[in-house]
Amino acid sequence: MLWCDDYLFVHYPKTAGKTLTRFFVQAWPRPIAGYISKGQVNELADCELEKTGIVVGRGHENLSQSDEIVSAQGGDIRKMKGIFCCIRNPYDLMVSNYHFMRQTYKANMERPNFVIAHENDFTSYCEKVGVSSPKNWMTIDGEQPDNLQIIRFEQMNDDLNRYSEKFGFDMPVLGHLNASKRAHYSEYMCDRSEQAIAKKFAYWFDEGYYERESFGDKAQLKSA
Question: Which of 22, 99, 136, 196 is 20 to 30 A from 90 (CA-CA)?
């Protein structure tokens, strides 16, 4: 999470959090505070973090947790100009997460979801892995705050341009950290994995952010 007097960014996992953190650190007025992962420290080294209140922490605080943190600092996220949350096609997100967990398994062997990714093909991974509901990053007490601003992973640059014009903050060049190199998500999907993903990301589908798709009964790529 990242915040200043006027804005808050909450990071749902695997939704370009590193790219967006870099963008907002450069775009927003100071002072800025927040939590980033250890891996982000080097990636943001040129952003003068020592001049901010950004420290190493979990980095994936949901909206209620962020509300408590900002409130403890004397702020009120409901009175901010904007709360930003990035969303992503759930099928693409799960394929990305699966590959990430398999690639970084050796450094995360004690974490159950990484073990599941390591030991299973993609379809079984979708059925077995635990996923936090994105609803928790977009609602407080079951309701979206009026100042929630949605960024779509698939059109991130356009959305950020629109928000920079709307709110008047800077529009630095948008970098692309941790870009994936793999086949399109449809190559990994089948009906079983689709049904499992639809349950885990029901909020995005039910709210109309994304439409469910049909993929047939056999995935072409299991785990590569």
Answer: 22
